[in-house]
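ARCHIVE CARD
Drawer: 12
Card no.: 0347
Subject: one protein chain, sequence and derived structure
Cross-reference: see card 0346
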Amino acid sequence: MSGNAKNLRILFFGDITGRQGRTAVKSFIANLKEKPDFVIANIENASHGFGLTKKNYEDLSASGIDCFTSGNHIWDKKDIYDYIDDAEKLVRPINYPDGTRGAGARIFDIKGHKLAVINALGRVFMPPIDSPWEVVTKEIDRLKQNNVTSIIIDFHAEATAEKICFSKYLAKKYNNAEQALVKGVIGTHTHVQTADEKIYEGMAYITDAGFCGAEESVIGMEFSTSFKRLSTSLPERYEIAETPVAQINGVEILIDEFKATQIKRINLIVDNSKNESEASVEYDGG
């Protein structure tokens, strides 16, 4: 990527879950040998596994994260309504009904790129929501009129088929191998990283980026509470897993003026109890 000042290196972190995830990601960013041009993180589970408090928003903002995407849990901490309209880095799912607080897309100017980040919710096995197919394409058309040249989408969805089909639909509609407007569609929500990262029609894609949180857990939650809920089908309050060992999942995306050129998975185990994260030693991307 060296040699062209307009090339961008973007890091995208999968769902940050609880204190363990926040600590691991902050240490990871702090210890990078080479800082990325732009950092995106999904934070809908960042505050004890459900939602995002203003305190955690400000703390993560100060750590070097440039944009926060979210999902259906973004509303779980009620103080979200006190700051969401002023949170310039935060993007909530765009396909909530008209009049919903917050922004479903934001535009950032980075090294000559007018880069937009969109967040959208899927509908398969998810709560009722407006069609992402209609809402997102309408927003992309609006962004084109505002001279946006690069778009990254966090598609927060359950079904693998929906994620794959949605990404291919957007790539076929807006991209070709030489010129891509949608330079990335990154799946989130399941907390399990998939191994299908690829460049398709100039677009970086992965079905799910995974999550950042307690490694010895059930997608970030304590085994005991998860087991009770899943084995008995009775209501049980999930509790965040308390362990110093965390995993960091995400992707590194390289884009130039015309298209995405590379996507690489990040999959690390770090020990939050140590004074210095081992992430900078194990990760060779920067």
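Annotation on reverse: Confidence is low (pLDDT under 50) at residues 276-282. Residues 224 and 239 are 9 Å apart (CA to CA).
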